[in-house]
Amino acid sequence: MEIVRRLFRTAVRVAALVAVAVATIVLVRAFDARGMGPLKPWQTVSPASELTARELDGAFTLSRYLAREEVVFREVRTRVESAIDPADREPVNRYWTDGPLSPSKMPMDWNRTFELVPGKIRGGVLLVHGLTDAPYSMRRLAEIYRDLGYYALALRMPGHGTVPGALTESEWPDWAAAVRFGARHVRARAGEGAPFHMVGYSNGGALAVDYALDVLEGAELPRPDRLVLVSPMIGVARAAGFARVLGLLGVFPYFETSRWLDVMPEYVPFKYVSFPVNAATQTAALTEVIRTKTERAVKKGTIGGLPPILTFVSLVDATVRTDATVRLLYDRLAPNGSELVVFDVNRSTVVQTFVKRREKTRLDELLPGRKRAYGLSVVTNAGPGTRDVVERRTAAASSEADERPLGLSWPDGVYSLSHVALPFPPDDPLFGNEPAGPGNPFHVRLGTLQPRGERAVLTVPVEQLMRLSWNPFFPYLEERVRAWAAVPEAAATP
I need a surface site. Which of 17, 74, 112, 354 has the fewest CB within 10 A? Predict the structure, then answer.
């Protein structure tokens, strides 16, 4: 009995310590959140007219989808843009309709769903943007597919493209339902027998994988022939799940900012910069669902039914876990022609002087030399004395790599890609470092910003502005996507 009492007392003490630790973390987080400043209307408003899974899984059409989208944007104009405080009418604010960053001032509002139609439809592709993003991030990839004869549909996911406050209420099953709707529409538009592809960026990559796993489990949905994933959110930091706890105090007026991980000026016309806790918890829930479905497919022996997947990742990624893409998805694939492309860090001698030790060894730890069920390509420096890069490609079931120069180089001062860089070419008019054309329809060139000066002066944190927003190796990415999506001439339909 004495042993039982001691064990009980120990358990109570441990539980008390855990409770105190959790309470301390939550309270510290809550008071830190108070330092973010008061919330703005675009952070407190969540459009009531957003589409839900129940609606989208019904008899829905694209025209109805677009009409409902217009209702959502009208609500934003009425509740946010038309009611904006005079103090918030400044150039850095996209919600000031007379400001230079307002999407309403631009030739096209890329926050909205768009479709690209080729002269002859040879196939169809559904493109799914990432968390806090808008369909704009799918623009260049959609154009590539359109040029190859694909009908391309880039859907705006519910809760996106409007106000960041929408993501305080949005849930991942609504996004998954939008993907199911989009897949049905694209399949019908392309016609039976034509190739059907899905392209997903970040959280959109997770949604594409979740969709493919649902098809594998017998869901009555169009089966994708191939997937393209860009920085897919297959795994997130464990802290993302814990974020739900940190957001609980947000129900109290004094701690309303606890519902946010970041509150910042909204200076990007086609992406939220502020980030709510709910967005993190929803992605954590989605990745857990994907893990469960994948494990179930492996146990049942059905994993081989997944379509071939072409994935592009950066070795270092502060948003998603690159190792999760490898270990939780690719290492479980059956041989089906899938390919993984890894963009290495800049390994030139000068840059490596300043790189942390763990980043120098990350590639070998993540991808040790062995035979795999999928093809592997690593884009890396040709040698330590050069910024020129090569592709080192290892075929499936092989351990020997073939090297190919790419005619591309690391730009001066760039030490790695970033999560947000991969889908944007250098000539992207908003995020590129060499915006195309003499005119700039977006009135700002975020990819060319190189802030220098004293600290604690700018309204936007310097670490945000210094994050690479474009992919210097996009020509290579485009080459791989074009080869992946090539359609025989015989597949063309009027």
Answer: 354
